[in-house]
Design a protein that fits this description.
The protein has 366 residues and is an alpha/beta fold. 50% of the residues lie in helices and 13% in strands. It is built from 13 helices and 10 strands. The protein has helices spanning 41-54, 71-83, 95-108, 114-117, 120-136, 139-150, 154-172, 176-197, 223-238, 257-272, 301-321, 328-335, 355-362; strands at residues 4-10, 30-38, 88-94, 211-212, 218-219, 247-251, 278-279, 282-283, 291-295, 348-352. The strands form 3 sheets. The protein has a 6-stranded mixed β-sheet. A two-stranded antiparallel ribbon has the order 4-5. The longest helix is centred in the middle third of the chain and has 22 residues, at 176-197. The two termini are 30 Å apart.
């Protein structure tokens, strides 16, 4: 069984509180992380060299940013991996949806207990609330929460609550979904204001726990972190919890390496303490610890393959998000990824997107 997995990403890694004007994310609204299982990296390197010659690509390595108009390269890489029975794991994240999901989990319907929040019906309900916010919430509602993360204070959280409750109150008169969500928001506001009046105790600002940079600056929302977490759980499912001889080799991440390593360790420690939780198409009960290290892409054919796939998927999904009709060669390349999906083994593409967009993307596999 495959023991070595190479990871790379596409879509402007970074803290989503720095989304920019109108939450445009620098025109990279989607984040993608890919893990490619490889049994023989030298053979993969030979194939990538062949593809460089076939597709007339300059340079000594394949780089996704050079392949914007060459979707067949990604399709050829995907077909090579599939032909050799190699597993591929993909996380596709809509950044705006990620912000909405973070708001739901920390601000709208905050954590109650592992038993309650781990229930499938609760997770599905929270996902539906995130979809509602993604589809209908005005920019002011999302921006007020981002502002609270950027400069945490009682006043900033209070302003964010005022924005979302005010918007929901207007809609609740004719929208039962808004009325439903508003009840949760009001309960959270009551808890917040009660704590704010208390002379002692640390007040909950209903923000995500930040990760710290090496200079101790906070990162509030990192899609690369949750994506790595889920791919680790998916590889654990694929490997049937036999992870002791597994190595994860990630593209060099000087700014985030310590955070990614810490997140991996947290999953392992929670599993050892029996505090893992149920996630669809993944297994977070990581009883054996895999090794993780970082490498520059020019040193690894495996990382180059992951980079090519991640960049192509990111660009394709953004085309569909913009309601553009992808050219035939793009659609054919994307179709090559459908064969990797096996929910029981954790392989294929996992979407962190609104359901409507997932359904639309799945049409390309018919």
């Amino acid at each position: 069984m495959t023991k070595i997995f190479f990871l790379d990403e596409s879509g402007n890694t970074g803290d989503l509180v720095k989304a920019g004007a109108d939450l445009a994310f620098g025109d990279q609204s989607t984040f993608v992380l890919v893990a490619v299982g490889v049994d023989d990296e030298a053979e993969l390197g030979t194939e990538l060299s062949r593809l460089r010659a076939v597709h007339k690509i300059q340079g000594s390595e394949l780089k996704s940013k050079r392949l914007v108009g060459k979707p067949r390269v990604a399709g050829d890489v995907a077909r090579y991996l599939r032909h050799h029975g190699l597993p591929v794991f993909v996380e596709v994240v809509d950044k705006r949806f990620f912000i909405c999901a973070t708001m739901v989990n920390h601000f709208v319907i905050p954590f109650v207990s592992q038993e309650f929040d781990g229930r499938r019906d609760v997770m599905e309900m929270k996902n539906q609330v995130a979809e509602y916010l993604h589809a209908l919430a005005p920019l002011s509602v999302l921006q007020s929460y981002i502002d609270a993360c950027s400069a945490p204070s009682i006043s900033a959280t209070r302003t964010a609550f005022a924005e979302i409750s005010g918007w929901l109150e207007v809609r609740a008169a004719s929208d039962s979904n808004a009325e439903f969500i508003l009840k949760f928001v009001r309960d959270t506001i009551d808890e917040f204001e009660q704590a704010a009046r208390s002379p002692d105790g640390e007040i909950n600002l209903y923000l995500p726990d930040p990760d710290l940079s090496k200079a101790s600056n906070p990162f509030w929302m990192l899609p690369n972190l949750s994506s790595l977490t889920n791919i680790y759980g998916r590889i654990n499912l694929f490997r049937r919890r036999k992870m002791a001889d597994v190595t994860l080799i990630h593209d060099e991440q000087l700014q985030f390496e310590h955070i990614l390593e810490s997140s991996k360790k947290t999953i392992e420690d929670l599993a050892q303490a029996g505090k893992d939780w149920s996630v669809r198409n993944a297994d977070y009960r990581v009883l054996e610890r895999a090794e993780m290290r970082f490498l520059r892409s020019e040193q690894s054919a495996g990382i180059q393959a992951a980079d090519v796939l991640a960049g192509f998927i990111m660009r394709f999904v953004q085309q569909v998000q913009r309601s553009e009709v992808p050219a035939r060669e793009f659609s054919e390349a994307y179709r090559a990824f459908g064969d990797f999906t096996n929910a029981g083994r954790g392989t294929g593409i996992n979407y962190v997107l609104p359901t409507r967009m997932v359904n639309l993307l799945n049409l390309f596999w018919l």
